[in-house]
Amino acid sequence: MTYLHNIGTYFLMIKEMFRKPTKWSVMKSLIFKDVDDLIMGSLGIVAFISFFVGGVVTIQTALNISNPLIPKYLVGFATRQSVILEFAPTFISIIMAGKVGSFITSSIGTMRVTEQIDALEVMGINTINYLVFPKFVAMMLYPFVISIAMFLGILGGMAACIYGGFSTLEDYITGVQMDFIPFHITYAFIKTFVFAFLLATIPSYYGYYMKGGALEVGKASTTSFVWTSVMIILLNYILTQLMLS
Amino acid sequence: MIEVKDLHKSFGDAHILKGISTTFEKGKTSLVIGQSGSGKTVFLKCLLGLFHPEKGTISYDGKIYSELSRDQKRELRAEMGMVFQGSALFDSMTIAQNVMFPLRMFTKQSKSEMMDRVDFVLKRVNLADAHNKMPSEASGGMQKRVAIARAIVNKPKYLFCDEPNSGLDPKTATVIDNLIQEITDEYNITTVINSHDMNSVMEIGEKIVFLKDGYKAWEGSNETIFKTDNEAVTNFVYSSELFKKVRQMYIEERQ
């Protein structure tokens, strides 16, 4: 019953998010602030992880190809497919569930604990629109982060490949360009938009509806990370089944 | 004027408010007092519309809150100012931005008009030089004064304060009490304060409502509280030796 109640409340929150919008001049500054906090603030960690994980994927692929009949350019091909199809949209989203998700839950949760949400409510403000909508809009720029992750993942793979001596630059680039299916990019970005929605709303839900004090803010952040990750993995499976199979 | 009739509020099996009826008049400072757990905060949150009572009505100058549409409720709330126990200032904004917030949300004033109003109210609460400080850089007393400034900046009709003196030293507490009373008189607003503080009761309690176990146990003023024989009130108000002596002196003075 609790799960059903939570799911119902979550969808009511989504509906409320679009009702009675906050004054545009105020909303604009909230959106810019959230773009800075959620998107710009994540670029560093996303760039770092993407570059090195791309390198690791390349090294592991190269080391597992022992058959001399398998062409060297396959390393570039495998890296591209792994990075574009799964690593950038899904793996980075799980990391973002930890970074951005816990930030959203703890910041909204702290506002709840310190009665700042009550203060907004008393003023007659639609608090869900005021708090959640800017995060939702900011997260619509999330595909920009994922594009960077894709680019840096492949670049990291290239660096590892050349400096590790696994194949030549030409082979790697040939592999990256080989059998490219543009729909894979579409698929990756559709997933990214869905994950962006989850990343903005699930942590907001756990922050907004939390009860208790500082300890509960920590617990809510953990729960929000768990459920955001679960939903990302689950929807990743469903979307892949629907779009690629 | 706020009129409360037969207000009931429960959380699960816990019946917190058990039929409270009272009136808070315009231009008067009214205090709701009672022991911890007596239902004061729940009562105040019902007045603010943050909790929905199961039974009973609250009317604001004749408008019954529960009969208003969602948008009308929001409009009414924009006429309320609230000073929270922990001040509830927005940590990401400076003091001036905190005070300006209701103006940005609900008025079409230009930035210079808003700044003039912010300057005026910050001066009114003796914080003329605190514009660019963050709430975390302000002391408890300053935060309370900023919260008062934010509550009155949009010229509310109703002002609610939840334990405005908690955590403050006696001198600052008196400053806050006097400020609230002056503002109530100056703007002719309806002010309701939740308090534990007996100094506030004696100083500014033009009307006092005493809650006990979710019931209204007594109603009066800071004049009549000295004379009452209501056991619940006397046990609460005169629990300290100091106030017992104050009451004795008051009675002797009157005789």
TrEMBL record, chain A:
Record-level GO cellular component terms: ATP-binding cassette (ABC) transporter complex
Keywords: Membrane, Transmembrane, Transmembrane helix
Pfam families: MlaE
Membrane spanning stretches: 38-63, 83-104, 140-166, 187-206, 226-244
UniProt keyword Transmembrane helix present: yes
InterPro entries linked: Permease_MalE
Transmembrane found in the keyword field: yes
Gene Ontology molecular functions: phospholipid transporter activity
Protein name per the record: ABC transporter permease
Organism, scientific name: Hanstruepera neustonica
Organism lineage string: Bacteria, Pseudomonadati, Bacteroidota, Flavobacteriia, Flavobacteriales
Automatic annotation (TrEMBL), chain B:
Assigned keywords, A-Z: ATP-binding, Nucleotide-binding, Transport
GO molecular function: ATP binding; ATP hydrolysis activity
Domain ABC transporter: 2-238
UniProt-listed PROSITE patterns: ABC_TRANSPORTER_2
Source domain of life: Bacteria
Pfam family for this entry, one: ABC_tran
UniProt xrefs under InterPro entries: AAA+_ATPase, ABC_transporter-like_ATP-bd, P-loop_NTPase
Protein name in UniProt: ABC transporter ATP-binding protein
Species in which this protein is naturally found: Hanstruepera neustonica
